[in-house]
Amino acid sequence: MARVVPALPAMTRRMLRSAPLAIALITAACGGKAADSTAAGGPSAASAQDPGGSIAPVSTSSPSFCAESPADDQLSRRIFDRLAPAVAADYLALRRFEVSVPTRRDTDPGLVTLTERGTACARASDAARCKKAYAALAYDQPWAARVYFTRADTVGIVKNANDAIALIGAVDSPEKAYFVAGEAGFRFSCGGVNAAAYRVTEDGFEIVTEVGGCGRPVERVTVHVHANGAIEEVDRLTTEAVTPSCGQP
Length: 249
Fold this sequence. Notes:
- By secondary structure, the protein is of the alpha+beta class.
- The chain has one domain.
- 17% of the residues lie in helices and 24% in strands.
- It has five helices and eight strands; from the N terminus they run ααββαββααββββ.
- The protein has a four-stranded antiparallel beta sheet with strand order 2-1-3-4, covered by helices on one side.
- A hairpin with a 5-residue loop joins strand 7 and strand 8.
- Helix 4 runs antiparallel to helix 5.
- The protein starts with 9 loop residues before the first helix and ends in a 9-residue tail after the last strand.
């Protein structure tokens, strides 16, 4: 049975805001940065921003992304719950290492399942072999939440934006846009001046993310996540010029 982890203290969450999440889904280690991306299609429309940095919604039906899930732990589960694989998966799990420096000598590597759905290896031709392969999956970035899955005889981890779009097929919701952007190295939360927000475009979504911290300036980055998963930077603004250094959580 999955072990549900309580929300981290506010100070700890602040320290962990500096690295990519699975989705930057929950928390991550310091040092995350935006990955290089190639834009697809024409340039996106300029985003209208209020003094707080939120993207003005296209209509009243498109509120701030945080309106529905103001707490970061709720936000991560909301994104995970709304992921719909393009090819049906038997099992999806959101897992993370809760150790500072995992090593091969650790008897308990600290890999925790935060939430899950489905049945692992349900359609595998050899369930025992499939479960053994799934148990051997590991991702050695401390505090990085990742999506793990099984599909028939295939097991895997979503580790980057290409993996994310391969899993979901297309970006057709703001949750999927944040999922892909998180795997590309952009992080997001529902606190501070860079709180997550979005607007619908003709080809995907423009979303508010941030990068930096841990001794580097914090920047709010608005990106356009196209329906095919390509990411285009629209706007970048420094919102915190000086930040404290932070080590391993």
